[in-house]
Amino acid sequence: MRLFLDLFKLRIGFAIALTALAGSMVAPGTAGAWPVAIVTLAVLFASAAAGAFNQYVEADLDRRMARTRGRAFATGRLQRGPTWLAIIIAMAAGATAAAATVSFEAALYTFLGAFTYAIVYTVWLKRATWANIVVGGLAGSFAVLAGAASISPEAAHAPLPLAFAFILFLWTPPHFWSLAIVHREDYAAAGIPMLPVVAGEARAARAVFAGAVALALSALLPLALGMGAIYAVGAIAGGVLFVRAAWRLAREPSKATARASFRASLVQLSLLLAAAIADRLA
Ligand code: HEM
Ligand SMILES: CC(C)=CCC/C(C)=C/CC/C(C)=C/COP(=O)(O)OP(=O)(O)O
């Protein structure tokens, strides 16, 4: 069970699936429960495939980092080879095909989300530039658009889904840079140019703070586009929480303040997505 959760990064998968569900809820129009359920599950499976692919490709890196040393491909508990590659590709293809039964756009964005994480971020950018995560953040944006496309092809490009896609894009860098400060030595040892490694802890901490402020402000944008009071409470509470944690990190960069900022990013996103869904159900 533990192996399964870790191999497919299922906790992250559930967050991505919740993101897609929120995308479908804020999209204009209504559809049956089926298309929404199919696309939400397709995003979960596509994310699982991309997460397993990431570990398949990074077995060498994972062995050099304390946090990831115990992963199945890194320890050799699972053998790298054609069988696992086939399973991973089949999962991604199956997820994209399932989304295609709903609409071309739903399939396109599900595919692009997994492709951005698995290929653009993991293979092309992660080892090459500190901006890896800025581009990689588009993966979360695609989850929003995939969810919105479960309502109708045009719904994915309506103002509210686009606003939430933008919010996810802004969310990812301060989310990840907080954690990268905690594990800076790990990334340095593995030779990965994450921001705290190339720019130092203090500048990375200031970037987290600036990112959290931009995020908290952008989270207000949906209020101008029709979201109501329930969303306002979740977006403002989450924003205040994350900005406060990021401020403490910027003032006093340390592993403890960075860990608190990472946790605050997860609470902020959960509050924002849950509030968006509740607002639409109310
Ligand atoms: C390319 C962009 C991203 C990067 C590089 C990134 C990086 C990370 C890392 C390194 C962890 C540590 C978890 C582990 O040990 O596996 C993590 C945790 C987490 N991330 Fe992200 N993340 C990204 C995007 C996202 C997105 C878009 C979401 C959700 C919408 C998300 C949700 C989460 C959650 C829920 C956790 C906690 C999981 C746990 O406790 O195991 N992340 N992230
Ligand atoms: C629409 C759709 C299917 C979207 C899926 C996108 C997705 C799963 C994004 C998550 C990105 C992520 C968990 C990165 C982990 O970083 P890392 O792999 O560098 O972390 P590590 O050091 O723990 O391996």
Automatic annotation (TrEMBL):
Pathway: Porphyrin-containing compound metabolism; heme O biosynthesis; heme O from protoheme: step 1/1. Coiled coil: none annotated. GO terms for molecular function: protoheme IX farnesyltransferase activity. Keywords: Cell membrane, Heme biosynthesis, Membrane, Transferase, Transmembrane, Transmembrane helix. The chain crosses the membrane at residues 12-31, 37-57, 78-100, 106-124, 131-151, 163-183, 204-223, 229-250, 262-278. Its main location: membrane. InterPro entries: Protohaem_IX_farnesylTrfase, UbiA_prenyltransferase, UbiA_prenylTrfase_CS, UbiA_sf. CDD domains: PT_UbiA_Cox10. Its EC number is 2.5.1.141. GO terms for cellular component: plasma membrane. Belongs to the UbiA prenyltransferase family. Protoheme IX farnesyltransferase subfamily. Converts heme B (protoheme IX) to heme O by substitution of the vinyl group on carbon 2 of heme B porphyrin ring with a hydroxyethyl farnesyl side group. This is Protoheme IX farnesyltransferase. It comes from Usitatibacter palustris. The gene is ctaB_2.
